[in-house]
């Protein structure tokens, strides 16, 4: 078994990176404190921007190589962040470490996304590594509260937010999704395995087909963490593309849970909301709904 060997007072941070800008934000935040960082980029997932940092590229299935590198780099803490897709198991080329761990690895992939991610954390922790969240290294990813842009929700939007909060928490308890769209006081669409962007595309399609009679620029996208979600490895996210999709769906704004939803590229996200005349609200959500 490979175990972490770094002294606990200043462990090297290992970032297992998927796609998008979050791994880079986390690496910069860690380096700004003088902390040693090494990024492990997943081939086909992580962006080339990670090459600005000390890094290694890994393919799906290179489990043995990952643990060898973690030990060689004296990694003590691990962040798993960035967008990833479940791998195509028929295309994976496993190394010896993966073969030796195959029964365990197969067990990791059973269940919903929340269960799978918890199993991955346990797999790393069993080998001596402490898993921390991206937001614990870079708190600015989840900071702020209230209206982040120029626009604020009106009374109708507040009612939609309240209904959306109630529905998003119920959806999360079932490990189904993290987001809903509420229009005119009722939930018209919920997120499933397809993700938030496609949820918003469905709403846009419903408007085009005349299935939603509400006026353009009404309704709210509400996004929250699942109550049982392990935020260390699965922090809900919005960004500029979310704003663009919400505008295309004819919504009035977006409301997200403070401290538990990450805003990627915050300045660009706020600017996009202002340009689209959408409100962007960050607020605490009650555990049992409004």
Automatic annotation (TrEMBL):
Domain of life: Bacteria
UniProt domain LpxI N-terminal: residue ranges: 13-141
Pfam families registered for this protein in UniProt: LpxI_C (PF06230), LpxI_N (PF17930)
Domain LpxI C-terminal per the UniProt entry, residue ranges: 145-280
InterPro entries noted in UniProt: LpxI, LpxI_C, LpxI_C_sf, LpxI_N
PANTHER family registered for this protein in UniProt: BLL4848 PROTEIN, LPXI FAMILY PROTEIN
Identification of the protein by name: UDP-2,3-diacylglucosamine pyrophosphatase
Organism of derivation: Pleomorphomonas carboxyditropha
Higher taxonomy: Bacteria, Pseudomonadati, Pseudomonadota, Alphaproteobacteria, Hyphomicrobiales
